[in-house]
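Suppose a colleague, Dr. K., hands you the sequence of a protein chain of 366 amino acids and asks what its three-dimensional shape might be. Before reaching for any lab equipment, you can write down a predicted structure in token form. Begin with the sequence itself:
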Amino acid sequence: MSDTVPIHSFRVDGYRGIRELVLPRLERVNLFVGRNNAGKTSLLEAAQLYASRTPRTVLASILRERSGFRPRFASPRNDEISPEQVTGAVESVRSLFHGVFTGTVGDPIRMGPIGGEPLVISLPWASSALVDTAGRLTEIELFLEPDSPLVELRRGEQVAVLSLDWFLRRFGVMITGTSRSTVFIPAQGLDSSRLGNLWDEAATAGYATQVEDALRSVVPGLERVYLIGDGGSGGRSISLQVRGTPRTIPLASMGDGTNRVFSLALSCVRARGGVLLVDEVENGLHHSVQSETWNSIFALAERLRVQVFATTHSWDAVVGFQEAANRSASAGILYRLEREDDGSVYAETYTEEEVAVAAEHQVEVR
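The predicted structure, expressed as tokens, is then:
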């Protein structure tokens, strides 16, 4: 086991579709496979929440992306909050809890290392709210005040509250203050604006060469990366100088694979000393570059002390992971997630040696 990784083991109880999940051992690079709805994305979110220095901000972003409820951005405090908005906010936070699938409010969510101090997420109003026989909230009088707490996050003596007002009216302000301790790359990737900001940060911090080296796994003739524009009304764009081409080539025209590797390398730099989480890591990558991409991930993770959590549906990604793990000084581990009938998620471990045997004999581990 890597002694310097932020999370050595992990347990999740009651988060979304996961009633219970135990990961007894985690390494520098961790890959999770499994069928759809096995809990892979929920696991990444739980790890992000636990590892982040600003879990309240992360939670609000998750709610916005996954609940389908879109609060207003930075609206004036004296604007009246409608009953429909309150209901939307309440239902969005209830969607975090495993109990919502059975029609009950559910116990507090717990996530953290086995035997360690967990992050506990609870609904402060749940015990005092009037509920019907199925456990559903039947009135909104508890949320007439803007500062009414929607969700409480507690780790030991540290407590943070996501209030109704903060979620509904100051969301647009708070999302700009996310912590550098965790970076989450969704399945659809990062937009060009985010990539431009990340490249600017990486270059300023002196990591441009490492990012360009990683990008050469998919653009062998790459000479240099340029950030064009000043961020004003015209925006900024990234272009690549490739050997043998008279002009720079916009990154946006280079294809999904180039953008994916660029996102991975930049996000490793951003998350240095922390945790990088990647959903469906294989997206946009041709099978022929999987091994080199994983080589870059392992190398950057070791150099920058980043712990990587990634999910995949791709056999090529599994094989590339195994090949890179065998060449790297950093340890890697593969888990296959399987959902039980009661909502528990069973995690089956595959060591590097077992993945190598599976790859050699084409044994299905996804």
